[in-house]
Amino acid sequence: MGFFRPDPWRMFEKRDMHGVAKAMTHKDVKVRRGATACFKSRTIKEIDKDELKVVIHPLIERLRDPDKAVRGYATQALAHIHLLHGLVNKTATSDIVQLLFDPDAEIRADVVYGLGEIFTNPIVVSAESKPCPEKGSENVVFPIIEKLKDSDDRVKEAAAVTLGSLGYEEAVMPLIELLHKSGNKTVTKATIQSLNMINPDWKDISAIKSTERRKKRK
Asked: What homologous superfamily does CATH list for 126-218?
């Protein structure tokens, strides 16, 4: 008897979301990739909101998958579904935020990027436009700000980039602090780019804070 490999794409076409969710946990990485990648299909717009609710938590679980491609597809799927239906609610967001404490730094970094992808509105009016946060993004800003203090530079860079895409003013001072402390060129570059995106006048803020710190030392 041959090895049976489920076809998540066919399940998706038949709108068998329970089958797709089950395929996400399959031991064969190709099946897991298919199960998370099938949400790129244009037909996702035809699937009912209630049917898609079934796959939200299975997709969140795939954000800690050992395979980087699966993690990436799961992030894209969550972002697409959230943009269409706003299904990544406060509870789901809390579940994703918990993954920021995963012992694997690569997973922590990917989760940070994933939160940015899920909660940043992709509709940009012009190149000069400020970032446009999606509904619910306020729940992830402070957990991501905390990741600026992560022990791994990959996570710090991810947090800096993501905060720039979310565009919250609350991130300016923590980013300035990271800029002064970090000795990593990649992290520094990402931090400067994000500060420019959030508030082009950040250098003035930084200069004022530096003056205040000098006064306190005297």
From this structure: Leucine-rich Repeat Variant (1.25.10.10)
